[in-house]
Amino acid sequence: MSLEQNRKSNNNVAAELDLTNFATYEDYLDTHVTPQDLMYLEDQDLVRQVVELGYKGKELLSREEFEERKKRILEGPKVVEKKEERLVSLGKDVDDFPLLKALAKREEYVRNGKLAV
What we know:
- This protein has six helices and no strands.
- Residues about 1-10 have low confidence and may be disordered.
- It folds into two domains: about 5-75, no CATH class; about 85-115, no CATH class.
- It is mainly alpha-helical and about 120 residues long.
- The protein is rod-shaped, with a radius of gyration of 29 Å.
């Protein structure tokens, strides 16, 4: 990863972490509104629309992107449940096959990492 890609990645992480500071998308838009905007337009909702449409020239998240990223941040990393692995040899009649019998005997130890093949 180049230095610039790493910097962009760090900026994205910082931006996503900042999203937790906003209760709503409107609060997020309000951080991009200046007092001068309010002075000229005199309507908070109108100023928000101007900011949301991108007329201020800043890269902003759309409402959908904001909600998706905020939800992803609040949920945290997904936890993968480890499902129980059954032994293949369990319940098999391997008495007539010496190789299969030897493998069945070692299977549990190999799966648990107590024995290397």
